[in-house]
Amino acid sequence: MSTSTSPAAMLLRRLRRLSWGSTAIQLFILTVVTFGLLAPLACHRLLHSYFYLRHWHLNQMSQEFLQQSLKEGEAALHYFEELPSANGSVPIVWQATPRPWLVITIITVDRQPGFHYVLQVVSQFHRLLQQCGPPCEGHQLFLCNVERSVSHFDAKLLSKYVPVANRYEGTEDDYGDDPSTNSFEKEKQDYVYCLESSLQTYNPDYVLMVEDDAVPEEQIFPVLEHLLRARFSEPHLRDALYLKLYHPERLQHYINPEPMRILEWIGVGMLLGPLLTWIYMRFASRPGFSWPVMLFFSLYSMGLVELVGRHYFLELRRLSPSLYSVVPASECCTPAMLFPAPAARRTLTYLSQVYCHKGFGKDMALYSLLRAKGERAYVVEPNLVKHIGLFSSLRYNFHPSLL
After folding, report:
1. Pick from 173, 151, 164: which is nearest to 105 by CA?
2. pTM of this prediction?
């Protein structure tokens, strides 16, 4: 009896090996087709994907972006030139209650003419505030002009509509700046001036510091309302030094120094692995559940999300304010920073104690203070502003590029 069953058992084992072998071949083919054909074809124009063909598309996409920015700058200029006045007087774009809950301070310098960056930013904020209505009645727009010369046309135009603080309006500078100060230290001093002016002028609960090339996203006010009134009531968030509303897309991949992203990446595999395994087993008409197949699909989905670009999957969080995530901040960059008033005052003290220079800008200074002073800071994902400026205010850029 045992001799008759032995060949059957051997045959069964061979069939099982054949079954697994065919599965392995199928998964190998799926991997080759996905990462060697389908993903490169679908993603070769995605700017923040590993499949992006930089040498094919970057120059053209950069030029198209600049042309579009020029058009939007002209549209923003016409927006303010055609803004109707009331009874012959020039209207203030947005006036909050006597003591605003949130001051939106836009820091501006005179940069590349024609693009009207600051007009794009202010016009978008104005439009979103109008759409927001009563929930945003406690929000105040405030322009901080830190241009040394008097040639900042856009700031002069906006002064008819928005309250403005001009750092260099008089002949004396109370903030100790002199023409020999390096551009990085001047930028920090400008930031200190604008943050302090916001606090002294309005005494708000929060100050949102926005650089003049950071255009707000459509969801910015509902998301901030949710974060500040609900999420930031949690003890570990309540005393944060600042909340960043922007992190460069090119630095949002999983393979980065931020350890929290590794946990998120593993979570992606744990979520999609079993799902893809169930789909595969169902369509392949294979009974039961296979742990090796699940491990494969976990790694497969993790690799696909990383190579396509984490940035694009983060966009799914825009479906609801409650889906936005708040994670520990890293050092780069400062296009939009939210400060609770007490934290803003601590920041003024901290920044007065550091000196900025090339390789140590204000963003790195702020980040270095977290550990030195025992503070915490966070960044919201996905971004709540779009960085549209390809011309830096710190260094000359004769060949502006998206990357």
Report:
1. 164
2. 0.87
